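mind reviewing this stuff:

——
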Amino acid sequence: MNASSSSLLNQDQTDTVSSVTCFYFNAPIFESSATLIVNVIACVLNSSFAIFSSFGNLLIVAVLCKTKSLHKPANILLGWFAFCDFLLGFLAAPAFVAFKIAEITRNFESYCVLRSAYDFTSQTTLSASFVILTFMTIDRYLSLHLHLRYKEVITNRRITGAVLFSWILSLSITVTKLWLDPKTFLFIIKASKLLCLLVIVTVYIKILVLVRRHQIQIDQLTVCDRRGSQRSLYDFCRLKKYACTVAFIVALIIACYVPVVFVSFCKAYVCTEGVEHAKIMYTLTVTFIFFTSALHPLVYICRMREVMDAIKKFFNIK
C-alpha cells in the first residue's frame, strides 16, 4: 500500500478478520465461509432488486408527473416517496453491491469509497422517505378529519414545501456524520426514524377511529339518505382505500426496518464476540429493505385504480 492511501486506510490482519479504518468509521472484514456466502447471495439479490426498483419507481414517478388529473397533494407525496425508492434502487443498491464485491475481493481502498457512497445515499434517501411517509399518513388523517375543508387547507404548494423540508432535514442529519461520533450518529439517525414510525402509528390509530366513526354513520343512514349522499360515500370509500394502501406500505417498512435498527444497535453497543453474526443479519435486513423498495410499485398498481389507469394510458393500452 502506498503512502497516500495509508492515510485513508489502515489494515490490521488477524487469523480470520481484517480491521479496516476508513474515512470516518471502522469496519471488521470477516473471512469466514458464512460471511462469504451471505455476501454473494446479497449481491445477486440486490442487483435484481436494484433493476426492478429503479424501473418500477421511475415509471410511477413519470406517470404521476405526466397525468395532470393526478396532480393532487396525496399523489405529490406518493410521487416523491416513489422517487426516494428510485434513488434507493438506482444509487444505494448498486453502491451496496459494489462495496460488498470490494469486501469479497479484499480491495479495501475501493471498499472505503463505495461504502461511504452507500452510507450517504441510503441514509439520506431513507431519512427523506420516512419523513415523507409521515406526511403521507398525516395527509390521510387530514383528508378524513377535514373532509370538505381538506382542499382548502392542504394545497399542492404546501405539500411541495413539506417535501422540500423533508430533503433539507435528511441532508442535514446525514452530513452530521462527518463530525459526530459514530455511535452518537447511529443513535440520532435511528431515533429519528423510530420517531417517524411512532408518529405514523399514532396517526393511524386516529385514522382507524375516524374510519370506524364514519362507517357507523354510514350504516345508520336510510336508503334515501344514501342516495342523496352518494358522492360523499364514494369519496369516503376512495379515501379509505388510499389510507389502507399507505398502511400496507407502513407495515412493510416497519417489518423490514425495525430489525435493521435492533441489529445496528447490537453491532454498535451490545455484540462484541458475536459481531460477525450481527453483520450477517444486517446484510440480510438491508437486502429486505431493497426488496420492499422494488415491491412498492406493484402495491401502487394493484391497489390504486387511478394509477393503473394512468399507466395504461401512458403505454396506450386499452
